[in-house]
Design goal:
This protein has 13 helices and 8 strands. The radius of gyration is 21 Å and the shape is globular. By secondary structure, the protein is an alpha/beta fold. It folds into 2 domains: 10-185, Rossmann fold (3-Layer(aba) Sandwich); 195-265, N-(1-d-carboxylethyl)-l-norvaline Dehydrogenase, domain 2 (Orthogonal Bundle). The chain starts with 9 loop residues before the first strand and ends in a 17-residue tail after the last helix.
């Protein structure tokens, strides 16, 4: 097997909310990125969104204003997939969460990309083996699962399939670590990986609490954001349990575990809300109303809070000294 080459040429396929943010993260770190999507309109919206994201970083004191133009200039949009990946060392796929769509794309990428290119999927649900199977390079296929907003949150779950080579996994881990991400390696394929399994358990109980009339959606959010959510952001669940005392945790679990939601079915409240067309911020309403001003405000508040938590400062280097522009 060929040795995995150093990663210098990066392509992102899919310019939606996740895709444009992934591309922006690499561009902020000094990497030129080719960004692909089906239409010029989608790409124009992605670049506009990237500009807004950068403006928020400037306003939050995270980057200097003079970094905006060169960062945007590192993102090269194209509607031609072959052009986007012709010399790619790494391709990150960020298209909608539909397995047939992703499999068709991976088969096409396998045909278009150089033999040594690594193919990574931002899927949040599908195991990498289901994508690797349609390629002739299963040893170079893995999941790189980002979290939104991907240019701000450091976590990336790296999920290898049984066929993924150690060299591939290490090359992507080193790349992400080098741009300030915190890659976590998921040891085996499992639905939802780690973060979404934890998040789904919390969401299921939150939906049950509202459905049973125990508290409103707004108050459940307040309980998390002003209570244990702050502690978990610092400690994580296992350190939090150790700090509380495992004997105390055991007694609490003995009392609560039989009471909390455990149905294998999707909570009816969620299905009913979606069926009513209330899909969240993107539709203007979910469990609460989201007029345009409120939508902008919540995104900006989230960005500012994440910047503060990460300790970003205007002195942060833009990566141009660490990552040479490709020839």
């Amino acid at each position: 097997m060929e040795t995995t080459p150093g990663i210098r040429h990066i392509s992102v396929v899919g310019a939606g909310y996740m895709g444009h943010g992934i591309a922006l993260g690499f561009a902020l770190a000094g990497y030129p990125v080719r960004l692909h999507d089906r239409t010029d309109e989608i790409l124009a919206k992605a670049l506009a969104a990237s500009g807004e994201d950068l403006a928020t970083l400037v306003d939050a004191g995270a980057i200097e204003p003079n970094r905006v133009t060169p960062t945007l200039a590192r993102i090269h949009p194209t509607t031609l997939l072959g052009e986007a990946v012709a010399d790619a060392d790494l391709v990150v796929e960020a298209v909608p969460e539909e397995l047939p769509l992703k499999q068709a794309l991976f088969a096409e990428l396998d045909a278009l990309c150089p033999p040594g290119a690594i193919l990574a999927s931002n899927t949040s649900t599908f195991p990498p083996s289901e994508l690797a199977v349609v390629t002739r390079r299963p040893e170079r296929v893995l999941v790189a699962h980002y979290f939104h907003p991907p240019h701000l949150l450091p976590l990336v779950e790296l999920v290898p399939s049984p066929a993924t080579s150690a060299e591939t996994l290490e090359a992507v881990r080193q790349l992400l670590t080098g741009i300030g991400k915190q890659p976590v390696i998921v040891q085996r394929e499992v639905a939802g990986f780690v973060a979404n399994r934890l998040q789904a358990a919390l969401f299921r109980e939150a939906l049950a609490i509202v459905a049973e009339g125990i508290a409103t959606a707004e108050d459940v959010d307040a309980v998390v954001t002003s209570g244990f959510g702050r502690r978990l952001a610092v400690l994580g669940p296992f350190a939090a349990m150790d700090l509380a005392g495992l004997d105390v945790v055991l007694r609490v679990m003995e009392r609560l575990v039989p009471e909390i939601a455990a149905s294998p079915e999707v909570p009816p409240l969620l299905r009913e809300t979606v069926a009513a067309g209330r899909t969240g911020v993107k539709s203007g309403a979910g469990f609460r109303d989201w007029p345009p001003a409120a939508s902008r405000d919540v995104r900006e508040r989230l960005a500012r809070a994440l910047v503060a938590i990460a300790g970003w400062s205007r002195a942060q280097p833009d990566g141009t000294d660490r990552h040479r522009e490709p020839d």
